[in-house]
Design goal:
Layout lengths: L3 E3 L2 H12 L10 H13 L1 H9 L4 E2 L1 H27 L2 H21 L5 E3 L8 H18 L2 H6 L1 H12 L19 H13 L3 H24 L6 H13 L24 H9 L8 H4 L10 H6 L5 H14 L2 H6 L1 H18 L1 H25 L6 H26 L16 H13 L1 H13 L3 H19 L8 H25 L2 H28 L5 H7 L3 H13 L5 E3 L7 H4 L3 E2 L4 H7 L4 H13 L7 H7 L6 E6 H6 L2 H7 L4 E7 L2 E6 L2
Parallel strand pairs: 2-3, 4-5, 4-6
Antiparallel strand pairs: 1-3, 6-8, 7-8
Helix pairs in contact: 2-9, 3-4, 3-5, 4-5, 4-9, 4-10, 4-17, 6-10, 6-24, 8-9, 10-11, 10-15, 11-23, 15-17, 17-18, 17-19, 18-19, 18-22, 20-21, 21-22, 21-23, 22-23, 23-24
Length: 678
């Protein structure tokens, strides 16, 4: 049966709750009610409105649980950008955006489009338990180790605060008066989520992380359902994806011992050194579990630590699902195209590398698919997958690039792919390692994908090939190359899992026990070690220790700056910690060298800031040119001399205390705050 158009009681109650969530704009609600309303407003209202007007109205009830929170962040960001073009401020844009959403929901109900055609689910309701399991693991890790917040939260929090309290688009919080060089749309969404919920920004980030893990499971299952109807396969593939298909490569770690036969140090001494360096009680276990000459790819690490990898990777798979929803395309190719455009735009805006990987897969994969269908299958390829989708993807990257340039003044270096062309043998080994370990299963899976006459497998192969080539030829600095490799294993997972499951089911008793034990060793054991390592992890690097181990005296300095300086004030320090924007919500004057490298800040302006900072903290008297340069800025300037600065250079105390250019505003044993007099 095709199903019937309906608005069941549960769905009607859900729509009513969405309207009631608007009370946060007119009534001061208790914290728990404000949180619930904000959760509905941010994660369900935007996606529901989109689905009412442009989404697929033929869906199962489980789709209504998962799809809105996947689509909502993109809708929120795009509406905020459009509203900001009208209103010019964050808070006004927030009200305009959500007023528009509520109005659109009313229109949808009036014209009777708020219902949907209830169809049988392609994914079993049991997937809920897998979702809860994965999200629960992340919650347990956060409770067990609050250091996980300190690892990756400094920058996202600082950029979100820029949007909330200063300007949109934001300036670089770690580099005074300079346009930001990173995609800040994730931070815009977090700012909206924080403003509506009233939660600390750290809590909004980890809730989004857990929710992303929750619907990642569903997207993998929905993706798997394209290739099989067996519930076991659909439920097992997300579990293998959580562990990471790549994690099977960990058994190749002993190859590291081969170094004992080469190099300056050989034999037992080198073996002892290698074994002594093993660390399984921190996040370093992720590197330990990676074989030599490979990138450390680990799904737990990406989802548990605060970052923006997890959400776009779900969009990557969801784009594939929409590409293959031929029923949706037959009923309304325009709606299918707009839905795909929204997903591609979200992947690109929230994580430029993942979005670029998706666009390359769709555009180059479309070209390969056309060739395959014409030359090998001797048939006309379907228009949506071959022509419509690649045109949409190309349009998104062109418009996204132009818009990004208009915000920042120049494109990020990752977009200039010709400048990043470089052969990477390490990427080849990273891709090959798990396939070798899973050789009988991976060979059968690849043979099925590459040799199948089905359109689904044809598109799958057409996506995987350009991703593999991109991984090998595009250098994105350090381990960022792995962002092209992640999707390959996610695309490959259903076929490999089906082969593993079929092998276990058809094996005899003794062989079945061996296969199950082998799979547990390959996937369960490294997952447990990884989760344990993250729970036990503590900071090792100096700048991470400063982010995590903050004394009461240091907090007092940050608190005074936050409470007693102008919101646009800039702080000059001599350290590499970059925590002033995090703890005090004030911009730094100069960015640490490794952050400059990571985000591509360079040029005369950077050197000028460095010369000013170095001149202030040198053992030379204050220079007139330095003071003149500082007074040329149009913001208040404060200088913090920390206790460790005085330990290294005691003359700084006399230098600033006797100066007529600076005056002491606050001091305690941890540090002294000076203000530059105008």
């Amino acid at each position: 049966m095709d199903g019937k158009r309906e608005s069941p009681i549960a769905y009607s109650i859900f729509i009513l709750l969405l309207f009631l969530s608007a009370l946060t704009f007119v009534v001061d609600l208790p914290p728990i009610l404000r949180f619930v309303c904000a959760f509905l407003q941010v994660f369900y209202l935007p996606g529901t409105v989109f689905m009412v007007f442009l989404g697929n109205d033929r869906r199962s009830r489980i789709d209504n649980l998962y799809l809105p929170p996947i689509l909502s962040p993109i809708v929120v960001v795009l509406l905020m950008l459009a509203s900001h073009a009208i209103a010019g401020s964050f808070h006004a844009s927030l009200r305009i955006s959500f007023a528009a959403l509520y109005l659109l929901l009313v229109i949808g109900i009036v014209i009777r489009r708020a219902g949907y055609i209830d169809i049988p689910a392609t994914v079993s309701n049991k997937i809920l338990w897998v979702s809860i399991f994965f999200a629960g693991l992340i919650a347990i890790a956060y409770v067990a180790n609050d250091y996980l917040f300190a690892w990756d939260t400094v920058r996202p929090t600082a950029v979100s605060n820029e949007i909330l309290y200063r300007a949109m688009p934001p300036k670089e919080p770690f580099f005074a008066d300079i346009s930001i060089r990173t995609m800040w749309f994730y931070h815009l969404f977090q700012a909206v989520w924080k403003e509506l919920s009233g939660l600390p920004i750290l809590h909004t980030q980890w809730i989004f992380n857990m929710l992303s893990a929750f619907f990642f499971v569903y997207v993998v299952a929905r993706f798997t359902s394209i290739f099989t109807e067996k519930t076991g396969h659909i439920l097992l593939t997300p579990l293998f994806s959580i562990a990471g298909l790549y994690s099977a490569a960990w058994v190749l770690w002993p190859m590291n011992l081969v170094r004992a036969f080469f190099g300056d140090v050989r034999g037992p001494a080198e073996i002892s050194r290698i074994l002594a360096d093993i660390d399984i009680n921190s996040r370093q276990v992720i590197s330990f579990l990676s074989p030599p000459m490979t990138f450390p790819i680990n799904m737990f690490d990406r989802f548990i630590t605060i970052g923006i990898f997890h959400y776009p990777i779900s969009l990557f798979l969801l784009a594939f699902v929409v590409m293959l929803d031929r029923d949706f395309q037959r009923r309304s190719i325009c709606k299918a195209a707009l839905t795909l455009a929204l997903i591609i735009a979200g992947a690109f805006l929230f994580r430029i590398v993942t979005g670029t990987a998706l666009i390359l897969a769709i555009v180059l994969g479309g070209c390969l698919f056309i060739l395959k269908e014409r030359l090998r299958e001797h048939r006309h390829p379907p228009a949506f997958q071959s022509y419509v989708a690649p045109v949409i993807a190309a349009a998104v990257i062109v418009l996204g690039g132009i818009y990004y340039k208009s915000l920042t003044g120049e494109l990020r270096s990752e977009l200039f792919l010709p400048k990043r062309l470089m052969f990477s043998a390490r990427s080849i080994v990273t891709i090959a390692a798990p396939l070798i370990v899973l050789l009988p299963f991976s060979i059968r899976a690849l043979r099925k994908i590459l040799g199948s006459h089905e359109i689904e497998h044809g598109i799958l192969a057409a996506w995987m090939i350009p991703l593999a080539i991109s991984s090998i030829l595009i250098d994105l600095r350090g381990t960022m190359e792995s962002y092209f490799i992640f999707p390959i294993f996610l695309l490959l997972a259903p076929s490999v899992v089906m082969e593993i499951t079929n092998a276990i089911q058809t094996a005899r008793a003794a062989s079945r026990v061996f296969l199950i034990s082998w799979i547990v060793i390959l996937f369960v054991f490294p997952s447990i070690l990884t989760l344990r390592g993250l729970m036990l992890d503590k900071p090792e690097w100096v700048h991470l220790r400063r982010r995590y181990y903050v004394t009461d005296e240091q907090r007092s300095v940050y608190s005074w700056i936050r409470d007693n300086t102008d919101i646009n004030a800039v702080i000059i320090e001599k350290n590499e910690f970059n925590v002033m924007p995090f703890f005090a919500n004030r911009r730094n004057f100069y960015l640490a060298w490794f952050e400059q490298r990571n985000f591509g800040y360079r040029g005369e302006r950077v050197e000028w800031h460095k010369r000013i900072r170095d001149s202030l903290f040198s053992d030379e008297p204050l220079q007139t040119d330095t003071i003149h340069s500082l007074r040329g800025f149009d913001f208040d300037i404060y200088l913090v001399v920390w206790r460790e600065n005085l330990e290294e250079s005691p003359e700084l105390l006399e230098k600033f205390s006797s100066s007529l250019e600076f005056t002491v505003r606050y001091e305690n044993p941890a540090g002294t705050v000076y203000e530059l007099l105008q």
